[in-house]
Design brief:
Number of strands of chain B: 0
Largest interface: A-B, 33 and 27 residues
CATH superfamily of chain B: Ferritin, core subunit, four-helix bundle
CATH architecture of chain A: 3-Layer(aba) Sandwich
CATH architecture of chain B: Up-down Bundle
Distance between the termini of chain A: 58 Å
Helix content of chain B: 55-70%
Structural class of chain B: mainly alpha
Structural class of chain A: alpha/beta
Radius of gyration of chain B: 18 Å
Order of helices and strands of chain A: HEEHEHHEHEHEHEHEH
Helix content of chain A: 25-40%
Number of strands of chain A: 8
Oligomer: heterodimer
Largest sheet of chain B: none
CATH class of chain B: Mainly Alpha
Shape of chain B: elongated
Chain lengths: 279, 173
């Protein structure tokens, strides 16, 4: 549909709620919100056909700031909640959002299984490399030598996750990275992710001006991948591992089997399951 | 490809101009909301006023677009020379302790980039009607810059003022 051809077309502001974000001024999450609403406007998705499920953390507050259906869930459990919704309402567009800690630490196990199940979800991991809501502790994507937390004054000493590599190894069929400072390009990636049939993992580098003020430098380092959207996992993993984590674009896209597209055999009824427990 | 190469006709120019102004208004509103939520009502009021001015300009362009069959351009297809539209303030350039002079300094940077955008189109566009309208808009932006400078001159706070963030001191002591 042509998004601005009629006066009744939905604008990106229509996808924002009246609730004002309480994120810190300058937070990258504002721009991720803008990118999501621009993507939804571009696709002209009716408000009632979209749900945004989130976990816990600064970024997970995003569900309240959109006017689509929302569920601000349990820490690390946004993906299983979203999977349940998608299983029940496959007609809906289901977006999932959360931070790097929510998705890779507390919800790490759910993340890898969501990747391999390949349900038609779009997962936006707003990665600021820190636990912001709890006042700045190292997260799974924090560099090993980050010394600005009293909990880890000499750095964590452990290597950080490469979220894209983890997603690829776990079976995700769409893997991309965007940057909060470039919300228009992030909107492009989101549109592609939403249109992709399967699990779309989008790492959104999101600036934390409060606990990671050095992120202000990110805009000098971010650049686009020269080649995008390979369907070859070998090519994708080489590109992901060789990259410093600052390249943006669609890294991998492939049509893979989905849990939703399982076999055609009739499902067993509840009584049949119960009978197996009879003594 | 330069901006004047991308903007091949008046309808496309109108879409670029309207988007530039609408996104500037939206950003000023966002900044006003941020300041309001963080108990900085003076700066919130300033950003709200700036959003109002941007909306007036957007409405003017919308009125002039009546009867035109405007093309649809996806957000990422504009190909702005920066990551967002020229008049869209940098969301990372604000702080909850900022004062009104610093807010106006940010706004003047936005207006300057908008002026540069229109001025470049007015000088380089091969389409006379686009060049003429761009020159008109550039003159308006220049006028806005003058108004902001006059507003700034009346301020009783300085852009150099630094307010102490007690939270950060507590965090790092």
């Amino acid at each position: 549909m042509n998004p601005s051809s009629t006066n009744t077309a939905l604008k990106f502001k229509d996808y924002k709620s009246e609730t004002k974000p309480i994120w810190c001024p300058g937070c990258g999450d504002f721009s991720v919100l803008n990118a999501i609403t621009k993507a939804l406007a571009q696709l002209q998705l009716p408000l009632q056909d979209v749900a945004l499920i989130s976990g816990i953390g600064c970024s997970s507050r995003i569900a309240a700031y959109t006017s689509v259906y929302g569920f601000h869930g349990v820490h690390g459990r946004a993906l299983p909640l979203a999977a349940g919704l998608k299983a029940a309402r496959s007609d809906m567009t289901v977006l999932v959002a959360g931070g790097d800690g929510d998705g890779l630490s507390i919800g790490g196990n759910h993340f890898i299984h969501a990747c391999r199940r390949n349900m038609d979800l779009t997962y936006i991991m707003m990665d600021n490399e820190v636990y912001g809501m709890t006042k700045g502790q190292a997260s799974p994507t924090t560099a090993h030598d980050w010394e600005n937390s009293k909990l880890t004054p000499d750095g964590t000493g452990v290597r950080s996750f490469k979220p894209a590599a983890l997603a690829l190894a776990s079976g995700a069929s769409f893997i991309a990275r965007g940057f909060s400072g470039d919300p228009n390009d992030l909107a492009r990636i989101l549109v592609a992710g939403i249109e992709h049939k399967g699990f779309s993992f989008i790492q959104a580098l999101s600036v934390c001006p409060t606990y990671r003020p050095e992120h202000a430098e990110w805009k000098k380092h971010v650049r686009k991948f020269e080649t995008e959207a390979t369907g070859d996992p070998m090519v994708a993993i080489q590109q992901i591992v060789a990259d410093d984590g600052m390249s943006t674009g669609i890294m991998y896209q492939r049509d893979l089997p989905s849990l939703e597209r399982g076999g055609t055999s009739p499902l067993a009824g509840l009584a049949e399951f119960e009978s197996e427990f009879e003594l | 490809m330069s901006m004047s190469d991308k903007i091949k006709d008046l309808d496309t120019f109108l879409v670029y101009s309207m988007t530039l102004e609408e996104e500037a208004a939206e950003r000023h509103d966002e900044l006003a909301d941020m300041m309001g939520v963080h108990n900085n009502p003076e700066v919130a009021a300033t950003f709200r006023k700036l959003a109002h001015y941007s909306r007036l300009h957007a409405q003017e362009i919308r009125d002039r677009s009546e009867g035109h069959d405007l093309p649809v351009i996806a957000p990422w297809e504009f190909g702005w020379e920066s990551m967002e539209g020229p008049e869209t303030g940098d969301i990372s350039a604000v702080n909850y302790l900022m004062n009104n002079a610093q807010a106006l300094q940010l706004a003047m940077g936005n207006e300057q980039r908008a002026f540069d955008f229109y001025d470049q189109i007015s000088r380089e566009s091969p389409v006379p009607e686009v060049a003429a309208m761009a020159a008109e808009f550039a003159a308006e932006e220049k006028e806005h810059l003058g108004m902001l400078q006059a507003w700034m001159d009346k301020m009783d706070v300085s852009i150099d003022e630094k307010r102490i963030d007690l939270d950060l001191i507590k965090m790092t002591d």
